[in-house]
Design goal:
The chain is an alpha/beta fold. The protein has helices at 31-36, 38-44, 79-91, 110-117, 181-197, 240-251, 270-277, 313-327, 345-348, 355-367, 398-409, 414-424, 462-467, 472-484, 486-494; strands at 12-15, 48-51, 55-56, 68-72, 95-101, 129-131, 133-134, 140-141, 155-157, 163-166, 201-205, 259-265, 286-289, 334-335, 372-376, 497-499, 507-512, 518-523, 529-532, 539-543, 550-551, 554-557, 562-566. The chain has 15 helices and 23 strands.
Length: 567
């Protein structure tokens, strides 16, 4: 499905509301806090805002466990506050996408409560309930051996019965059954409500998981120490998803000028993603995948020393090429380094030692590739992972909590676990936004969630970044303005993209064809490397060092040095 002209040439910003800006002193970021920073976002150059969940929730998974789709969570404000946010954002030409959780509800949602209370209710059919199995010792076992994303069985027993309900995330987030037309109708009503309210579209959360293998047969893949099998083919990117989305489009989306971005996860192929988002027949506009989010081997690296965690630049380039070749001219692509579910990109692919250089290089590399760029809040000032002291420091996140318990069960000591979680935990992306050098980095009184990275006192904050001409923030402002210039935007969108020296182990370089060749070159290493270049340099659009070292057609690239050139 093609997006309308009003969504062209947009630069997206992913905003995690709980830790963005607290306006009322309760320790939680909120909608009035977001409104107070809309001028900042406009000045940054942002004109497309994706806000993580705002719906009412018991916050078992920080808002992704929705207990009422009709109400803004009181932590964030009121429904009237949300209406004002839309009005104020639109007045600044900022379009707003909201996170729409489709795969599951909270176990405190009225639908699930009715399903538990009355097995004969309509709502019982909104979820997956199955009888347990009897083990050899006579105990009741889950209906099958599947393991979910939060390191536990996908089944939770209802106390006092032999019934289980299905959940691929937390046990407080029961999956809904999209094969039920009455369930689908309820979601259609919710979508219409927000589109009529003025929301410009949705980021469709966990979209890949709407289809399930309803045989619920055991998986034959290798089991873990608890006899559980992590077999995502049973509940990820199954053929049923396309039919559900097509019906959603026919019933709702095709009647509104909206933008639809689906989360399809890390096991999707470009061809499958294309069925969701092709211009010709796709039911949505673009899909997020995770292929370019873990290219340094950090995921699953428990016990490995830091020196083994190194960005695989060749594989990273291959991933971007694979997606470009599949999608160019056929569908839109969102491009991003990380979101609220990943560690900070500066700590993944960049460098604390070369904070400014690497932050600028990562932005330049991302911003001028084919697709719609999305920046995660705080990247524009070079925010990085925090250093936590013990495993319990991560327990504000249910995913981290379950993973830590599993790692302890596997025999890892707390020091090893803490080191690993400091490297990989998604709470690193959920530390409070750093606004200035005042108490708690200007976020507000002591944050309810997550610690503050103390580097805000060393200048990693918005106020100090504004004051320095060559700061990361000011580089972002200038680069985003360049990306939105009509000539450059058209060349990025339409000019053929290709890699330069795809097998170079340290340098990420690419071109866009056009009247003048657009060239991006970035060293992804904390050391000097060399890159051969045989074009005539006509103009340097962006550069993150003060001078250029170029002799005999070879760039001497200092740590994380980057260029955007015309040749």
């Amino acid at each position: 499905m093609k997006k309308s002209a009003r969504f062209e040439n947009r630069v997206g910003y992913i905003l995690y509301p709980a830790t963005f800006k607290d306006s009322n002193g309760d320790g939680v970021g909120d909608i009035p806090g977001i409104i107070s920073k809309l001028d900042y976002l406009k000045d940054l150059g942002i004109n497309l805002l994706w806000i993580c969940p705002l719906f009412q929730s018991p916050m078992d998974d920080n808002g992704y466990d929705v207990s009422s789709y009709e109400d803004i969570d009181p932590r964030y404000g009121t429904n009237e506050d949300f209406k004002r946010l839309l009005q104020e954002a639109h007045a600044r030409d900022i379009l707003v996408l909201i996170d729409f959780v489709l795969n599951h509800t909270s176990d405190e949602h009225p639908w699930f409560q009715k399903a538990l209370a009355d097995p004969n209710s309509e709502e019982r059919g909104y979820y997956f309930f199955r009888k347990g199995r009897i083990g050899k010792d006579g105990k009741i076992l889950p209906p099958n051996n599947w393991k979910g994303f939060f390191s536990t069985s996908v089944w939770e027993q209802i106390p006092g019965t032999d019934d289980f309900y299905f959940h691929i995330f937390s046990k407080k987030m029961p999956d809904v059954d999209w094969n039920n037309p009455k369930l689908r109708d309820r979601y259609y009503q919710i979508a219409r409500h927000y589109l009529e309210l003025g929301v410009d579209g949705f980021r469709l959360d966990a979209l890949a998981h709407l289809g399930k293998d309803t045989s619920f047969a055991d998986s034959s893949l290798q089991a873990d120490e608890n006899g559980l099998v992590y077999d995502t083919d049973r509940f990820s990117n199954r053929p049923e998803v396309l039919s559900y989305l097509t019906d959603f489009k026919d019933q709702v989306f095709s009647h509104y000028d909206c933008l639809l971005v689906g989360e399809v996860g890390g096991n999707v192929t470009p061809s499958t993603a294309l069925t969701y988002s092709s211009f010709e027949s796709g039911p949505i506009h673009m899909v997020f995948n995770f292929d370019t989010a873990w290219a340094n081997g950090a995921y699953g690296s428990i016990g490995k020393p830091d020196h083994e965690i190194k960005t695989d630049v060749i594989e990273l380039k291959k991933s971007f090429r694979r997606w470009y070749e599949a999608c160019n001219g056929k569908c839109d692509m969102p491009i991003y380094w990380e979101n609220h579910d990943h560690p900070r990109v500066l700590s993944q692919y960049g460098s604390i030692q070369y904070r400014e250089e690497s932050a600028k290089a990562l932005l330049t590399t991302l911003l001028f590739m084919y697709g719609t760029p999305f920046i995660y809040n705080g990247d524009e000032i070079g925010m990085s992972n925090c250093e936590y002291e013990k495993p319990e420091d991560f327990f504000s996140d249910v995913n981290a909590r379950n993973e830590i318990l599993s790692l302890r069960q596997r025999g890892f000591d707390d020091a090893t676990i803490t080191h690993y979680m400091n490297r990989t935990a998604r709470v690193n992306a959920r530390t409070p936004m750093q606004w200035d050098r005042s108490e708690n980095a200007g976020f507000g009184p002591k944050p309810y969630l997550n610690k503050i990275n103390q580097n805000y006192l060393q200048g990693v904050n918005v106020q100090d970044e504004y004051a320095r001409f060559e700061s990361v923030l000011n580089f972002y402002r200038y680069a985003i303005a360049k990306r939105k210039e009509p000539f450059l935007a058209a060349q990025v969108a339409m000019g053929k993209w290709d890699l330069l020296d795809p097998n170079h182990p340290d340098v990420f370089a690419y071109t866009h064809e056009g009247p003048e060749l657009l060239v991006c070159i970035a060293n992804f290493r904390p050391y000097t490397t060399y890159f051969s270049f045989y074009y005539n340099i006509k103009d340097i659009i962006l550069h993150n060092y003060g001078d250029v070292i170029f002799n005999n057609h070879v760039f001497e690239l200092r740590p994380f040095e980057c260029f955007l050139l015309k040749a």
